[in-house]
Amino acid sequence: MSLRCFEASARFLSFTKAAQVLHMTQSAVSKQVAHLEDSLNTNLFERSLKGLNLTPSGQLFLTETQQILNQIEISVLNMLAHGSDVETVNIAVHPTLCARWLIQILKGFGQSFPHIHLDIQEQINSSEIENHQTDIAFLYGDGVWRDMTSIKLFEEHCVAVCSPDITPDSFNGLEEFEYHTLIQSRSRPRAWDEYFQMQSFIKEHPFIGPRFDTFYSCINAAITGCGIALIPKFLIEKELASGELILAWPYEMNNNKAYYMTYPTSMEKTPKVATTVQWIQTRLRH
Fold it and tell me: With a threshold of 0.70, does the pTM exceed it?
């Protein structure tokens, strides 16, 4: 209760408003916060006649407290929804890979294994994933991550694509890229540089174009005619088949990196992880 009293008081910077939200008296909230400060042996608030202000320690503790309370709420909801016999597998994956590949791979898993609940967190890059508690993560790289077992899924072949409204046919040469907007991916800041370097082409002008966090946004930007995007081919097979996107240039870039399914080596024999990994591996063979 002291954590909730502190969080509410810090959110409103008022014991009175916190008391109203928590359906307590102002005195009770104040005492709970004071007890917490005594336990931590530090002041979380600066108290004055004008009201409350968080101390630097209080600001830091607020962030951690909100994370704790959020996790407790999620755990309670999971328990209410799935019961005590259900285990949760925390999965971290890039948003576009999740939407365009993983969801299809996991189709039917819940029916086959009702005692395993999948909690999928969409993360942008491996540094974010490594800072979270995950059971299974889908990462792009060289396959080497500390204390992790990696299973190679597939290589990445990037192609330059655009709307047929931009160019109805493929370019006649790489120099034609100079006259078009090149859509950027924030997660692959050097992708276009590598694309041209691997073909021994020197681009004379700097890259000009919008930058997006995810391939999903880059794909949509290319479809709507914002420019040319460099996208992993397996993510846009549907759009290439339908003609929504066309290849601006036939070259496929492979930089010797791949997509991997990873999990902590210490959890290799954990039933919930082993079951999920086996399911995904089986679907890859089909």
Answer: no
